[in-house]
Description:
The structure holds 2 protein chains of 2 kinds. Helix content of chain A is 0%, strand content 52%. By secondary structure, chain A is an all-beta fold. In chain A, the strands form 2 sheets. In chain A, strands 2, 4, 5, 6, 9, 10 and 11 form a 7-stranded mixed β-sheet that branches. Chain A has a 4-stranded antiparallel β-sheet with strand order 1-3-8-7, with no helix packed on it. Chain B is an all-beta fold. Chain B contains no helices and 11 strands. In chain B, β9 (92-99) and β10 (107-110) form a beta hairpin. The chains are: A mainly beta, B mainly beta. Chain A binds chain B through residues 1, 31-34, 36, 38, 42-46, 49-51, 55, 87, 89-91, 93-101, and chain B through 34, 36, 38, 45-48, 51, 59, 61-62, 95, 97, 99, 101-108, 110-113.
Amino acid sequence: DIQMTQSPSSLSASVGDRVTITCQASQDISNYLNWYQQKPGKAPKLLIYDASNLETGVPSRFSGSGSGTDFTFTISSLQPEDIATYYCQPYDNPIFTFGPGTKVHIK
Amino acid sequence: QVQLQESGPGLVKPSETLSLTCAVSGYSISSGYYWGWIRQPPGKGLEWIGSIYHSGSTYYNPSLKSRVTISVDTSKNHFSLKLSSVTAADTAVYYCARHWGGGSGRLDYWGQGTLVTVSS
């Protein structure tokens, strides 16, 4: 099974700050990684797929990069509505796993 | 617009079988894609349970495989989850979702989730 290390587990930042979250896979997963946003009481929402592609309708302040084992998710300018938990999700067809999540707070 | 809606009992007794259905609208299951179940215990992270293709091929999380059955009914455009011999550890919000089979298998449409509590 692919193990994902996601860091930090939580962060606090100010509105307008650049926020970066990283995920590291236990083995090479090429670009088979997605990022989700989950707000309290809601289902996860796909933001980035295949490591760096922005899902339709998602604001451009969200971005992703990386391949192989190291991946980065960035919010270029944090907005109040971005308060949520973010999960990375690698895919080792047909097995899914999820990173442990990063909770983002406003400072 | 693709929509998914979970339904089923919110309370299940220990040792019994949890049964949920996911109704899909706005897309015909028989047209393709994979259809999966994911759960989230209160205050914890996400866990993939398993998925099914419209043809009926199934894929399960190895840690749950012995207790899970996922089936599809294309005539009703829904798919179902059965989890047997439940314990309190199976208490969670259960989500259904559509996902791609290739690439990163992205889960692009999700249901709103349904809380299932295991308790006597």
